[in-house]
Structures are given as structure tokens and as C-alpha cells.
Design brief:
Length: 194
């Protein structure tokens, strides 16, 4: 644990202790959100929501392409830095050895293939007790068939991890985990679904 992490844990511990001694649970909740960080949820827009249905849908596919992220709400709702951070995180995931090995095992390349398109919307409330939310409309299609049409919510009530770049990174990682779990059917997929 580095010095910054030790300091953060110490401050959070003091806040938690102070909150519990004074009966203030909001301080305890704030400390919890600081430790937990961002949470990613996948909310399918179509009826396919069971793990088995997702695995069966993705089973035949051997490769995928992730298109650069876009936004339909303008710079004030989704600044360019959010789109850039998301695309950079996707590129980092492609170069991460752990993700590369898992993608190679489950998506060896070739046909059939599908495309992943993402539209991002970022909402942030400013201030010490503010929170941030990144909505990602994700559509996975092979051109003729929609494999998944979903909204991915990445929420952070953490002051230190509420930045747009961190949420974009967590959203990209969440999509990566979903793509892996959609092939393996691992139980973690259930935690991402409503």
C-alpha cells in the first residue's frame, strides 16, 4: 500500500469513527463509497436478461470490433475528455495481458464477428458530497442481428474517484468484463445484470 493509499485509509477511518460516535450515518456511507469506488451495472434494453440466454447468444461469435465512443448530447453533457478517456481505456484494455489472454481464449478471431458501438452521457453533481454517473448506451450487432442493446450505468459517489476519466475507465473495463463473461457464463455476469 503506497503512502497516498495509507493516508486515504487513515482519513476515512477517522471520518468513520467520528460519524459513528456522533450518530451520523451519512459520514459512514460516504466513507463506504470512498472505499468501494465506482459501480458498473448492465441494464439490457431487450428481454434477454438471463445468464444462459446471454451465453447462448454470444457463443458462436469469434471476434468483435469496438468503435470509438460518441455522444449525442453535446459538449456540456459529455465533454470530449470523457470520450477520449473512454477510447484510451479501451486501448489500454486491448494491451493488458490479462484481458488479451481472456479475449484470445474466447474470441480467437474470424467470422462470425460483431461490432460494439457506444454512446456516452456524463452527469456530475459538484461539491464534496457530489456524485457522478456515466450512462453508456451499448449496442452489439453483427449487422443483421442485435446481440445486446443495453444501458451501462457507472456510478461513483466517491469524491476521489468521481472524475469523468475514472468513470470512463471503469465503464470500459465493465464492457470488457461483460464480453468475457458473456462467453464463459461466469457467475460474475449475474452481478452486472439487474
Amino acid at each position: 500500500m503506497n503512502a497516498g493509499s495509507k493516508f486515504a485509509v487513515g482519513v476515512l477511518s477517522l471520518l468513520l469513527l467520528n460519524g459513528t460516535l456522533t450518530g451520523c450515518t451519512s459520514v459512514a456511507k460516504r466513507a463506504y463509497y470512498e472505499v468501494r469506488g465506482a459501480k458498473v451495472s448492465v441494464l439490457p434494453a431487450q428481454q434477454m436478461v438471463s445468464r444462459t440466454q446471454i451465453v447462448n447468444t454470444f457463443a458462436p461469435y469469434k471476434s468483435f470490433t469496438v468503435l470509438p465512443a460518441s455522444s449525442s448530447v453535446g459538449e456540456h453533457m459529455c465533454p470530449q475528455r470523457v470520450l477520449s478517456a473512454f477510447d484510451a481505456a479501451v486501448n489500454e484494455i486491448r494491451q493488458d495481458k490479462d484481458y488479451m489472454d481472456k479475449f484470445a481464449a474466447h474470441y480467437p478471431g474470424g467470422d462470425p464477428a460483431f461490432t460494439v458501438s457506444i454512446t456516452l452521457h456524463f452527469v456530475e453533481s459538484k461539491g464534496l458530497l457530489g456524485s457522478a454517473l456515466l450512462f453508456a448506451r451499448v449496442q452489439m450487432t453483427d449487422g443483421a442481428t442485435t446481440l445486446l442493446d443495453a444501458v451501462i450505468l457507472t456510478e461513483s459517489k466517491s469524491f476521489r474517484e468521481g472524475g469523468s476519466e475514472k468513470l470512463a475507465e471503469e465503464t470500459a473495463k465493465g464492457i470488457g468484463r461483460f464480453l468475457i463473461h458473456a462467453k464463459t457464463g461466469e457467475k460474475d455476469l449475474d452481478e452486472m445484470l439487474p
